[in-house]
Amino acid sequence: MLNHGKKDIMSKSSRLLITSGCSFSDPKYTIYKDHNIEVWPELLAKELNVELLNVAQKGASNDYISNSVMDAVVDNLDREIIVCVLWTGSNRLNFFDVDGHVLTSNSESININESLRLRHKALRDYMLTNDEFWDENFDLRAVNFNLRCVWRLDNFLKQHNIKFYHTHVYSPCAGIVWIAPYYDDDITENQLLEQMERERILIENTPKNRYFSYDYFKSQPYTKNMKWTEDVSMKIPNNGHPNQKGHESIKESFMLLMESNQLPYDGAHMSSMENFVYD
Amino acid sequence: MTKRLLIVSGCSNTEHEWYKDEFGIIAWPVIVAQELDLKLLNLARRGASNHYIENSIIDAALKYKDEDPLVMALWTDTKRLNGNDCYSYVDPKYNDQWIEFKDIEDMEKPYTIVKCSLRSIWRTKTIVENLGLRYVDYLGDFHIPNLTKGSLANAYKNIRSDWYFNNLNFTMREIESGGIDYTRIPIDGHPDQSGHEKIANIMIDRYMNQLKKKVEFTYD
Asked: Which residues of B touch A104 (CB under 8 A)?
């Protein structure tokens, strides 16, 4: 049995909207303040007339997004929760996971952020100069990493019978083959062809991933980005982040997802999980 | 008859090949597999974080769930953090771009670090057991990092009220130091042969206790 803590159930109003994402969802992102932009989680909370807990962070990876929602949910299990997530790009990877190794320090007294920064740099430098690391297998592991983040949050929320609406800013296949070691301005034609072939293989194989489900891509196909990303009228000039119109568009995407799926989960989550976990 | 599968993951304390090559030691997963007559799939890697251990187990548990594997985890040092999860994100394309996206007070760091691992442990246990598989774990070299003066008291207070901690069956003593008193290779610090046998026995005992409980429950 889950221990829900000792919170006074009657002390809070019941409905809570929990949102997460990257800078596309974070009202603290400087450029939104500069342009006086209200982000989609705030627009959605107003539309639904519910209290908002937005745990989005600029620069966040899908791993962070998945974990931040989970933490927010377990702290509020006495509420009627709705979760909305805007997943970020798949190229925000955790190399520790992909490679499986971390470089650790024996000292506990050093500043942990500085320590992490140096360790990350050493690992990253090694990877950036190691051509063999960047191949089709890396691409598939990168997609696996990101889809696992989606799956485990979906699985957790179904366990708790919590309504969950989510969509991807970018295709989970986008950007991965272009991460490294080549830079856009010095790539050769052969390298370009090789990476295009890698991308084709990745797109073809992504639905075979054990964490993939077409249920995760209701607002657009898994090969596509959200429409607003290709519409200059919805973006802040020379920036790429959504302007007010862009945020309205994202909010509308969530409203559509909600309208198309009014029924709450029926509690038969484990049997439905079995249906889409395959090799 | 095909042997039942034993899936294990962990850090260097669990990676057998390295022990065999470096010290001629038989690591605990090999001992457990021999004692229980199981086919071993060892996913452990030197330097692994608890996040890696979680992910490797979940990937394998889903892949092999139809074979009804037994799953074992030996958790590791909590300080092996994922930069993306707690503190920051590095864009590999730009060498100097290091984005701090979450400000954490010094006093909060030990708890935040431990929470990341508790979350991984809870998630692993829950997902594996929900798949209907047997799961056994041990905290190993888990501990609360003493990073700054006075922060430990704050960590204890927060861990006691932490949701993941309260939904796992570990004592504060185990969280504090992993609870391991096995013998170690001098200077190196990894468990010696006797240490590995002790870990193997703990894992086997925990598994046997689960089976015993199941029988008792069935007869009740």
From this structure: 47, 77, 79-80
